[in-house]
TrEMBL record:
This is ECHD2 protein. It comes from Probosciger aterrimus (Palm cockatoo). Keywords: Lyase. GO terms for cellular component: mitochondrion. The keyword Lyase applies. Pfam families: ECH_1. One of its GO terms (molecular function) is enoyl-CoA hydratase activity. Belongs to the enoyl-CoA hydratase/isomerase family. GO terms for biological process: fatty acid beta-oxidation. InterPro entries: ClpP/crotonase-like_dom_sf, Enoyl-CoA_hyd/isom_CS, Enoyl-CoA_hydra/iso, Enoyl-CoA_hydra_C. It comes from the Eukaryota. SUPFAM superfamilies: ClpP/crotonase.
Length: 222
């Protein structure tokens, strides 16, 4: 996906009705020794980092349970859409663990330090409506008979992104992600560097031409 230039948006959904991702298999984990657990969690953390680093926008369609590593997967995405009946939580402390695939870092960046601490310390599960109210998800929708309401809403969101200039969207994502980790002056410099990369693109010229000619732009990602 990272190197396929035809990919504009990636949507993560589950093929299992009622479950987005239930996290690690603790029965399997119980058979591992300490070293194997450490290796397993490191690989999982690396996977989430790879997802977070995808250059195109990513959307998690949470139509059911997103628990532990399942919520960490959703947090690694840029945007999240949930069914109102979905259940989410970093429940690791209820099993003698702590989030180990990015949850302790991405949740506070998403909902703020106080709420993140409360959710992680208690291991509490929340539904889609609660998640929306605290900013954990971008949108919440009533579940439908097919059980894929969040996925359908995620597709609608993806279709809003698709017509936009692909390279500009990628640079926007890069500027936000890098800029959020530094002071604002450094962030402005990062934005400037990303903007400079966008200036010579054919899509920028096309956008200006389409505006002058009062027609929809035809972006090609170049």
């Amino acid at each position: 996906l990272r190197f396929d230039e035809k990919v504009r948006v990636v949507v993560f959904k589950s093929e299992v009705k009622g479950v987005f991702c239930a996290g690690a298999d603790l029965k399997e984990r119980a058979q591992m020794d300490d070293a194997e657990v450490g290796h397993f969690v490191k690989r999982l953390r690396n996977l989430m980092d790879e997802i977070a680093a995808l250059p195109v926008p990513t959307i998690a369609a949470i139509d059911g349970y997103a628990l532990g590593g399942g919520l960490e997967l959703a947090l690694a995405c840029d945007l999240r859409v949930a069914a109102s009946s979905a259940k989410m939580g970093l429940i690791e402390t209820t099993r003698g663990l702590l989030p180990g695939a990015g949850g302790t870092q991405r949740l506070p960046r998403c909902v703020g330090i106080g709420l993140a601490k409360e959710l992680i310390f208690t291991g509490r599960q929340i539904d889609g409506q609660q998640a929306a109210s605290m900013g954990l998800v971008n949108h919440t929708v009533p579940q439908n008979n097919e059980g894929d309401a969040a996925y359908q809403r995620a597709l609608t969101l993806a279709k809003e992104i698709l017509p936009q200039a692909p390279f500009a969207v990628k640079m926007g994502k890069l500027a936000i992600n890098r800029g959020m980790e530094v002071d604002i002056a450094s962030g402005m410099a990062i934005e400037g560097m990303c903007y400079a990369q966008n200036i010579p693109t054919r899509d920028r010229q096309e956008g200006m031409a389409a505006f002058r000619e009062k027609r929809p732009p035809r972006f090609i990602g170049k």
